[in-house]
């Protein structure tokens, strides 16, 4: 017993070694089940008990690849930079610049004494053509020769035409009266192109400025009972119907051109024939082969509603209708809104936009994909000037000139 006492007293004086001990895991404290995963306890040794939320786990914005935003059809231009024709694009920009002038002129012309209270005008941004949220007075001040504001005896501010503009309106009315027969024939040709030889009067009135038709055309229709008949449907809609078919009017501008310059008329449209590369055709052979598809053309005055929509003949008819429609307009151009207006009457489809893009020899589409304008290229010279100008077009150009002036000079004439 003595040696045991001596050993215990000496060993208590010895300093113990410092050893690294790991905490026991659940697998070490308890027996391992035969159904448990033997690898899992070892992974628990490698897990950190500390938070790693301070570590950067996402790519910083400055290092991310910037995705190019896809352009909206509202802002995306129809033509690429290489294919763009500047003078056609400038005409579209000019229309936007004079939007207030054109719409306000139409609206005030229908008002009593050609005046409107300024407070009421501020609410009619769509009808008058000024930006929403802007003051109408700012748009009025840009055209001092056309519009003026004044304080009425009731203490309210009003705006209307200047005396100078009133004289211009009398000149325009004289032009309308002198061109009445020409406008009547335009409407007759539109009716002859329509599927059932009838068009609602509201549609013609909506596009009246496009063809130079006077505002009171609905009242003038009664003067021509041999040409037109007005029918009132059950819902109150007034429909204009064609009374007599005139074969002399049923000749399109393209058919007339074909008689004068056959080669030029043949080049107007292109409906290519699909063929394999094995044929190894040269340019002349391909042109002759394509002519088999292109000719004969389908007259726009034939009944397109009876044609199968997806056939080549139907597409030729639709292209011919658009070509003749543009020839009837004053400036040989029309917007998407004008063309869609007659979609049912002219048997057009929703693919009109792509159909026109396939005919770049004759048509040019300017503007954006959602709000485009189609031009007849041959009607303009190389500088973008209309070759044949209607008297109404000459008047409009003079009005635009006065609209940009701040005062009339001694050489200004009406």
DSSP strand content: 5-15%
Structural class from helices and strands? Answer: mainly alpha
Major beta sheet, strand line-up: 1-3-2
**Sheet with the most strands, sense and barrel status:** 3 strands, antiparallel
Protein model, in words:
This protein has helices spanning 2-11, 26-29, 40-46, 86-97, 99-109, 118-121, 125-128, 136-141, 163-178, 180-193, 201-206, 208-211, 217-220, 253-260, 262-266, 283-294, 312-328, 336-341, 352-357, 391-403, and strands at residues 115-117, 147-151, 157-161, 198-200, 228-232, 238-242, 333-335, 363-367, 372-376. The mean pLDDT is 83. 41% of the residues lie in helices and 9% in strands. It contains 20 helices and 9 strands. Helix 9 packs antiparallel against helix 20 (391-403). With 414 residues, the protein is mostly helical. The termini are far apart. It has a 3-stranded antiparallel beta sheet. It is globular and about 75 Å long. Among the domains are: 95-170, Arc Repressor Mutant, subunit A, CATH 1.10.10; 180-246, LOTUS domain-like (Nucleotidyltransferase, domain 5, 2-Layer Sandwich), CATH 3.30.420.610; 252-389, no CATH class.
């Amino acid at each position: 017993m003595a040696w045991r006492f001596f050993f215990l007293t000496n060993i208590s004086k010895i300093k113990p070694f410092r050893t690294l001990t790991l905490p026991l895991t659940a697998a070490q404290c308890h027996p391992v089940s035969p159904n448990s995963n033997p690898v899992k306890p070892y992974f628990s040794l490698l897990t950190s008990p500390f938070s790693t939320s301070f570590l950067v786990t996402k790519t910083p914005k400055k290092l991310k690849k910037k995705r190019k935003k896809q352009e909206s059809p509202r802002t995306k231009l129809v033509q690429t930079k290489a294919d763009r024709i500047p003078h056609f694009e400038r005409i579209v920009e000019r229309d936007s610049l004079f939007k207030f002038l054109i719409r306000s002129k139409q609206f005030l012309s229908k008002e009593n004494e050609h005046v409107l209270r300024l407070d009421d005008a501020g609410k009619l941004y769509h009808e008058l053509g000024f930006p929403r949220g802007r003051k109408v007075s700012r748009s009025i001040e840009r055209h001092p020769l056309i519009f003026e504001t004044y304080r009425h005896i009731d203490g309210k501010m009003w705006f209307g035409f200047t005396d100078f503009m009133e004289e211009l309106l009398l000149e325009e009315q004289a032009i309308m009266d002198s061109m009445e027969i020409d406008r009547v024939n335009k409407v007759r040709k539109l009716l002859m192109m329509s599927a059932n030889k009838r068009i609602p009067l509201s549609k013609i009135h909506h596009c009246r400025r496009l063809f130079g038709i006077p505002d009171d055309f609905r009242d003038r229709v009664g003067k021509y009972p041999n040409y037109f008949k007005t029918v009132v449907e059950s819902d109150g809609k007034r429909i204009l119907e064609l009374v007599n078919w005139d074969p002399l009017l049923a000749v399109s501008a393209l058919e007339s051109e074909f008689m004068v310059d056959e080669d030029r008329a043949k080049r107007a449209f292109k409906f290519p024939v699909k063929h394999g590369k094995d044929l190894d055709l040269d340019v002349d052979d391909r042109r002759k082969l394509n002519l088999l598809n292109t000719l004969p053309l389908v007259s726009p005055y034939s009944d397109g509603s009876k044609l199968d929509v997806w056939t080549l003949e139907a597409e030729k008819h639709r292209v011919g209708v658009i070509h003749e429609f543009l020839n009837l307009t004053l400036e040989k151009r029309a917007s998407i809104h004008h063309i869609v207006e007659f979609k049912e009457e002219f048997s057009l489809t929703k693919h009109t936009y792509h159909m026109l893009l396939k005919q770049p020899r004759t048509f040019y589409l300017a503007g954006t994909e959602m709000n485009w304008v189609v031009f007849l290229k041959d009607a303009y010279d190389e500088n973008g000037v209309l070759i044949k100008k209607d008297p109404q077009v000459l008047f409009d150009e003079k009005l635009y000139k006065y609209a940009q002036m701040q005062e009339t000079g001694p050489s200004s004439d009406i």
